[in-house]
Amino acid sequence: MFFAGLDIGSTITKVVIRSPEGIRAAVIKPTAAEHRRLAHKVMQQALDRAGLCFDAVQYIVATGYGRINVPFADVQVTEITCHMRGIASLFPQVRTIIDIGGQDSKGIKVKDGKLAHFVMNDKCAAGTGRFLEIMARALGVELERIGPLSLQSRRPAEVSSICTVFAEQEALLRLSEGAGIEDILAGIHRAAAHRICSMVERIHVDREVALTGGGAKNAGLRKAVEDRLGFPVCLAPEPLLTGALGAALIAEERSARAGSRDMRERQRRRRLEAVTFFD
Amino acid sequence: MTTASEPKGLARASKVYRNRAYRAREWKAEGKKVMGYFCCYPPLELMTALDMLPFRILGDMDESISVGDGYLPTVMCIFYRSCFDLGMKGRYDFLDGFIGAHACDGAERTALIWTHYIKSPCNFHLDIPHTSHVAARDFFKEQLIHLKETLESFAGSTIGEARLRDAIALHNRQRGLVRDLYELRKPDPPLLTGSEALQVLIATMCLPVQEGSTLLEEVIAEVKTRRETPEKKIGRLLIWGSLIDNTALTGLMEESGLHIVVEDTAIGVRPFRHDIEQTQDPLDGLARHYLEEVKCPRTFVETGASYGEDLENRFHYLREFATHWKVNGVYANIIRNCDIHGYEVPAVRDYLEGLGLPVLIIEQDYSTAALEPLRTRFQAFAEAIG
User: Fold this and answer.
1) Which site from A200, A209, B95, B362 is most exposed, i.e. has the minimal number of CB atoms within 10 Å?
2) A77 vs B: CB within 8 A
């Protein structure tokens, strides 16, 4: 039996196809401007990779920013719940999850495998992937390199602003003052970590802590967060997939709860096709 | 005046909710007076006794604040900024009088600024103590006497004791009908949605008391005999905190898998929970009811011997609501910069979580333009309850 989770993020789309034995296939693709039409294509890629046909998947859960654009999903669940479930399955000892996404960041508290409290920043680019993208572009460094480069810093520069626009100005000012790129990058990562951790501290940071989302793949950001917290964080083998993984786990659960007639009816109606309400 | 072609029940509530001044304008055309007021504290009975229509001044989440920002600082609570903005834009030009109140700092300051810039033939500022000691109650009664005298002078007649008792009885009857309406939200699923209840309550705050009571009777009869069974949702919420006065917000919550079954807000149970006692001097009953029985954190409740006793003194009535309405989650609604409710959040959360209820706290911007990001939060909360 197979179950699928689709996490349509603002920047990246992720699919996980899983059976009770484990993950069968996973796909990670950029969410382009045309993302609203992309969900079925990414799903097809995942099916191809898994060597499965669409009908072999019993239940599909969609999550993330674009979750309403998945017409073939059986149900939509928020990314808060999905990240929580995904991390809880990988690290049962985790009580706080810090999710750093493309355009938002979240703090999620887990208690006995259930969602306790959460806090979100989806109003402002500071503390999100977008902040780091803007900085990378302003400094002329490829996004993939800013993390490793920042780790070479001996003296992180002060980048104190909360606002991305002002932080960009400050970073360029430091550059003109002769600060090294690696020091500025370290300062930027510390500013982002400060912003994110301040937000999560509102719901109290309890160990163990897991870092997830695209931001977790940035080694410089990870170090800055760990420095701020004062202890190491748990990291999934692929931090981008925890939402889709959680969605696939919820798909399995929901499928078990649904009656067999309801399941047959769903599968009969389900079509792997593009969303139509934009036409 | 309702005619045969006028809608009834929920349709009428919706009509009044969407065009709140229409009955007030008709009332004026009949040569009668409309008195605007802030919050739940100015006694409506005094206005009704003089055949005046008490009209609750509210804001508009659909209207972007523009003029108001030129007069009020950004630290001012957005709800009262919106009320003032609407006033400056002429939306309340039908009011014959304005009764401001020191319900909270936001209400107080906005009320005083209102009277400076928006001229009415009759103005009164109701000073309301923040405690309910005997001395505070006596002081408040004095303020009510001043209010009564101001209204009588404006009306050109006096309120006789019999007339005041009648008005108290009429408003008590309306309170009883609102409580009956709330009974209909106890079943699972509730017979009436939160959005529908909100429209009804706001409508009663824009109508003469007897018309409001008739509306409530119609709605209760209509809802009891409804044939369609509403869809059952996971969450049964108590809303606590700053008022909600727009169904866009309640609708968003209901679309996210949440029933709204009871509201401890200023457009919720607070004005209707308790009936005024008919005391020997009716003003004593009024003073006691409005100062002590309209439960809002703006009124200080005596501290207990311990934090736990404190919480119990302040919030015990929430346990009653949660139990009888089978609440399984609480949404603490905080309009940005609402100190009254914002400062209370840690204590009320401790109390409610102590009862085993999950609490979602959102500081919101009192604007329909800023609602959509809240959808994920409400959905996640529903998923946590489920």
Assistant:
1) B362
2) yes
Element housing B317 (H / E): helix B307-324
pLDDT tens readout for residues B279-318: 999 999 999 999 999 999 999 988 889 999 999 999 999 9
> What pLDDT, on the 0 to 100 scale, is given for residue B30?
95
* CA–CA min distance B74, chain A (Å): 18
pLDDT of the residue at B3? 57
Give domain status of residue B217, yes or no. no
Q: Same structural domain for residues B250 and B156?
A: no
Copy the structure tokens of residue B141.
């009664």
pLDDT value at position A34?
A: 65
**Domain A94-235 bears CATH identifier 3.30.420.40:** yes
Residues of B in contact with A80 (CB under 8 A): 376, 380, 383
The long-range contacts involving B182-187, CB below 8 angstroms and separated by at least 24 positions, are B182/B262, B182/B269, B182/B325, B184/B220, B184/B223, B184/B224, B185/B261, B185/B262, B185/B325, B186/B261, B186/B324, B186/B325, B186/B326
The whole-model pTM stands at 0.92
**Maximum C-alpha span of chain B:** 60
- Residue A72: per-residue pLDDT: 92
Angstrom distance (rounded) from CA A127 to CA A40: 31
Please tell me the distance from the alpha carbon of residue A108 to that of residue A68, in angstroms, as a whole number: 22
CATH superfamily, region A2-81+241-269: ATPase, nucleotide binding domain (3.30.420.40)
Residues of B in contact with A81 (CB under 8 A): 380, 383-384
Cis before residue A226, ω within 30 degrees of 0?
no
Cα separation, B11 vs B200, whole angstroms: 10
Residue B132 lies in a domain: yes
Cβ of residue A123 closer than 8 Å to a chain B Cβ: yes
Tokens encoding B335: 């309009």
Measured distance CA(A246)–CA(A234) in Å, rounded:
16
Closest by alpha carbon to A90, among A272, A236, A253? A236
- Rounded CA separation B382/B386 (Å): 6
pLDDT in tens, A58-97: 999 999 988 988 889 999 999 999 999 999 999 999 999 9
Percentage of chain B with pLDDT > 90?
93
Contacts of B373 in chain A (CB under 8 A): 122-123
Structure token pair of residue B350: 């401790």
ipTM of this predicted complex? Answer: 0.88
